[in-house]
Amino acid sequence: MHIAQPSISLAISELEDYYGIKLFDRIAKRLHITEIGKSFLQYATHIVGLFEDMEKEIKNFDVTGLIRIGASITIGNNLLPRYITELKQIHPQMDVKVIIDNSEKIQQYILSNQIDIGLIEGIVHSSYIIEHKFRDDELVMICGNDHPFAKQKNIEISKLQSESFILREAGSAGREIFDSTMTSYGIKILPAWESTSTQAIIRAVQANLGISVLPYLMVKDSLERKEISQFQLIGIRFKRNFSVIYHQNKFLTQSAKDFISLCK
Question: Hey, what CATH topology would domain 5-59 get?
């Protein structure tokens, strides 16, 4: 143990004085452990084992621990699977828990410590959240192939006033950007449909039940298959950013830092 005999004797004596017991009988210049000493040894061995387990668990937490990630619907559908696959290649024993929701909810999960890292679209609404922009994105206007806008392509914003809209739910980043732009131009939009499902919106647009605005990443395949059409509002683009976010007081483990570096 590399501890001098007098130090061991002093430690035993202090323990006996503290607990008011005898750990050893001193008979014929030899120590014999008492029954209470045996009980004490069992507890001490258990405590040392727990300490060793704690040391192992804490030191290896970044290898075998848990990282909680939240992502917006667009990012969760299109980018997150690749990021997590790459993270698992770096940390194969790491457990990853994922929540997919709109950007507003993801920010709420960060603030309430329900997730460690969030991937969102658009604007951060809290000064307690740190953000790092990692990718540009754009919302695009879509309509059914038989809609008049499909052939005109460049549309005056005033023409939207009389259109039936099928939009994402309030709280989604895309909806926030679209509503803000319409308000700045004095256009009041009352959606006929609201949905959290991008595919439901695309199918409704395809059936000529209304027009919509969605992230390009979410409609790219449908546009390439010519299932729907894209049109442009004259002089207006719906540009935005994807950001990785975390609470300003969050301690970032190495695995969390590695995940952030993968977001690009």
Answer: Arc Repressor Mutant, subunit A (1.10.10)
